[in-house]
Structure formats: C-alpha cells, structure tokens
Amino acid sequence: MYLVAGLLVVSLFAVPRLQQKGRDKTAAAPIRIALGSQNRRVIEDQIKEWSKGQGVRVDCVPQEYEAARDVMGRNFDLVMADDPWIAAWADQLIPVNHSAIFAKRFPNNQFESVFPASAKTCKDGDKVLGFPILGNVLLLYYRRDMLNNAGISDDVVRVAAKHPDAFRDRFLNLADGGNRRFLLTCNTTPADSVELFWQVLLALGYTEPRFAKTKLVIPKDLALRAYRWLKDVDPKGFEVETDSDATKQFLDDKPDGPLMMFAWAGWFAEDFASDSEFDKRVGAVPFGDHPLLGHWVLCVPHGSKHADEVTRLAAHLALDKANTFLRAGSMPATNQIDTSDRNKAVAHFRDIVLPALRTALPRPRTKNWKEIEDELNAAIREGDFDKECKYIVFDDDVRGTP
Asked: What pLDDT digit, counting tens, does each position of 19-43 carry?
C-alpha cells in the first residue's frame, strides 16, 4: 500500500515535469529568420510547416532588398540573402559545411554537383557559407508565337543570342523604324540597368573580373561597347518607368509591344507553373555563353542561438522542396528535382534554367559590390565612363589581379 502511494506521489510530480519539458521547446526564444525576395511567402509557408513538425516557434521577418546591408547584428538566426552579400558578409557567417548536418546530407561531399552554381556564390575557399535556395538566372525571353508567325524559328534566336553584335544586327529591324520596342531592357528600377550591363559585359567576354588594389577594373572600350549595345537595342532602356510593369508589357499582345526582354527566370516561373500553354507563347535562351547568376542563399550568422536547427532547416528547404517551389512559381537552385512531374514549370527549369545555371557567372565577388554598382549605375545613366570613381576604374591599360 505504501509502495503504491509512493508511486502515485512520484507520478504526480513527474507528469507536470514531463509536460513542462515538452513545453520548454516551444516556450524558448523563437528562431528568428530574415526573409527576402518576392518569393518569401512560398518559403515562409514551408518554414511554418517545418516548425510545426519540429515543435519550435519561428518568427519570419520580411527584409526589403535595400535593407539587406543592415540585417547583420540584429539577432537573426538565419538570413536569406541575395548572393552578392555573401562576399560582403564572409567573416560574419558560420560555415555550414563544418556541421554534422552538412556531412549527413552530403556524405560524399557532393555539394557542388547538387547545386550547380554553388561554388560561384556560396563558397569562400573551402568554406560553404550557405545553402542556395532559389536559383535565379538572367535569360533572354522572347515571344515565340509572334516570332514564329514572322518566320523566325527558335533556332535562329538561340544561335543569334550567342553573339551580341550579330544578335543586334539580325533583329534590330524588328523595331519597325522605331514604331515598336523590340527588346525591353530596363523598365523598373535603376538596378535593372546595372544587371543588364553586367550581362552584356559577360556576353562580350568580361568573364574574369580584375582588381587594382580596391578598385574593380573594367576596360573602357568594353564598357562603351556594352553601353552602346544597350542604347542601340532599346533607346528608352535607361528611362526609369517606375509605374510600369515590364512583364505585363511583354505579355500584352499590342502591335507595338516588345518582342523580347531580359528577365530573371523567377519572373515567369509562376506563368509556366499555372499555364500549361504558356510555353507556346514564350520561349527563353541564355544570352552569350555565360548568363548572369542571381542566387538567393540561406546563411547562418555568427551569434545564431539555433545554429544546428536552422542549418537543418536550410538544408531541408534547399534540397527537399525543389518541386514544391517550382509548382508555386519559384526557381530552385538544385538539380535534385522530380523530373517525372509533368508541370511545365518543371520542364522549363530542367531544359532551360538548369543548363543556364551551370554556365552562369555572378557579379564580381567583393565586399564593396554595392558601392561598385552605385557608381556603375551613375556612369550608365550619364553615359560617362571618364570620371573618377572610388571603387571602379574604366581603363584599358590598367592591369589588375584576377
């Protein structure tokens, strides 16, 4: 009798303790995640699903692109960053390949084969500084229906897009004496013109950026060629039209509408995912041999209070949710997709985006990349490549280090 009573007393104390232990995990400080990009809602839904399964609390905090420079030092456990920030934050991030979670997910160290462009965006020496979650790449999109009706095949567009000058000369007549905008370039923000400038520089052969001390060296002759090319193909391209929607203009069937445009693959991902006939209207090809790369990366800052948990979460999102993102209108960064999925977004990613990711190149890797792009934007807008800059030198004679 005494034994039974004793066990009852112990159980009365033990049960609340067990219940409290179960509550401790969710009562602890929540995991704080800074999310960027227009696709953050899709990612946030997957994070919420994961958090329920793990029994942890997660706070997702939206971060606008321009606020990204201030995200470090704000007690985030996981940060979603546009890939140029990785170079700027290299000494503030925990290498994810130093964790047991990384070794478990990549037992044969096949990280770079699973994420085709990862070495260009996520690595600093032998350190892997994050998991690429969205694999954006700048492509040349064209109105397949209109061009085919004009007798211009997909092969003609693909071959011409390999050579910028031949492309301009071949298609400039489609502008119909200026009555239509045949190639839509910059149409939303000043940043667009910088991205397109990088893309044309890559197509013209600027594939190995060089630095003279702290300055990025861009040959002046090449810069002028890129600038003139963009002005030739779209004279209105540097006129910022903040109230316009470039993709809407491109998809409108107006007789004076653009036949082609440069766009990030993610801009049309939802159209391919939701419209099974979209590929009959729109085609896409890489421009030049090296399209411009634009990853979104999940990285773990120093000071993260939940480094193991968020590393596990980042790997889960980047590796296990590729088809989920595709069907929701986002482009993943991994080649680990279910190709039996017949959704047109999967086919577009497999046939166009993934091969482009393998050959894509990022913007120059430097902690001063944002300042460089601000100066480059001013030079492009003013058409002035002679003025003195703090972070760029436009000079054919300056020799730098790769």
From this structure: 444 444 545 789 999 987 667 888 9
Identify the band that residue 82 occupies on the pLDDT scale cut at 50, 70 and 90: confident
Cα(292)–Cα(140) distance, integer angstroms: 11
User: Which tokens go with 8?
Assistant: 């009852």
Query: Around Cβ 52, how many Cβ atoms within 10 Å?
Result: 10
Residue closest to 335 by CA, chosen among 317, 321, 322, 348: 322
Check: CB of residue 361 under 8 Å from CB of residue 293: yes
Measured CA angle at 63 (ends 61, 64), to 5 deg = 155
What residue has token string 């232990």? 21
Q: What is the pTM of this model?
A: 0.87
Helices (H), ranges, 78-217: 84-88, 100-105, 111-114, 118-121, 144-149, 154-160, 164-171, 190-203
pLDDT tens-digit series, residues 164-188: 999 998 888 877 666 677 787 755 5
Q: Which string of b and e fits 371-383 if b means at least 16 CB within 10 Å?
A: bbbbbbbebbeee
pLDDT higher than threshold 50 for residue 2: no
Give the whole-angstrom CA distance, residue 127 versus residue 377.
32
Q: Is the dihedral of CA 339, 154, 141, 151 positive or negative?
A: negative
Q: Which two tokens stand for residue 104?
A: 């478990």
User: Taking the CA of residue 31 as centre, how many other CA atoms within 13 Å lie in the half-sphere pointing to its CB?
Assistant: 29
Alpha-carbon distance of 185 to 140, in angstroms, equals 10
Rounded Cα–Cα distance for residues 141 and 259 (Å):
9
Give the span between the Cα atoms of 210 and 217, in whole angstroms. 5
Tokens of 78: 């996981």
210: exposed, middle or buried (C-beta count within 10 Å: 0-12, 13-18, 19+)? middle
Pairing relationship of beta strands 215-218 and 210-212 according to DSSP bridges? antiparallel
Confidence of residue 361 (pLDDT cuts 50, 70, 90): very high
CB 327 within 8 A of CB 345: yes
Q: Give CA–CA dist 148/202, Å, rounded.
A: 28
CB 179 within 8 A of CB 256: yes
Arithmetic mean of pLDDT, 74-91:
88
Residue 45 pLDDT > 60: yes
Instruction: Give the pLDDT of residue 399.
Output: 59
